[in-house]
Amino acid sequence: MGQIDDRLNELGITLPEPAAPVANYVPYVVSGNLVFISGQVTLGPDGVEYQGKVGADFTTEEAAKAARLCGLNVIAQLKAACGGDLDRVVRCVKLGGFVNAVPDFTDHPKVINGCSDLMVEVFADKGRHARFAVGAGGLPLNVAVEVDAVFEIA
């Protein structure tokens, strides 16, 4: 086990199995030293969680937990892309966060902090990244949050 696996254990985090794609795409693409991870939703151990709209069905705090769950799925895909060795991660380059929210909701950044904070917890300074956090009128499976990511690997 590597340093990042040790860190996950310290944090009490067990990564899920990487989700298979549900349409005509691949879960990640490695191009040179970059890994582009397709949008990951709120898939938990018992199936899809956090279905509904932020600002109606979920609070900002609940939605941040949904974003954290997306982040766990991002890291699971990243681990697969790295052949199981998360110590190959040089840095998280960028996260893209989509929030299924009511029209007048404006705290999208606070929601996506749930994923951003996870990246820093797991990867320390290598987890600091550029990002966007935007509202969406709807997301696949009516999930509250979806996150995609770009990582640099060695």
TrEMBL record:
The lineage of its organism: Bacteria, Pseudomonadati, Pseudomonadota, Alphaproteobacteria, Hyphomicrobiales. It comes from the Bacteria. It comes from Kaustia mangrovi. PANTHER family: ENDORIBONUCLEASE L-PSP_CHORISMATE MUTASE-LIKE DOMAIN-CONTAINING PROTEIN, ENDORIBONUCLEASE-RELATED. This is RidA family protein. Residues 6-145 form the Endoribonuclease L-PSP/chorismate mutase-like domain.
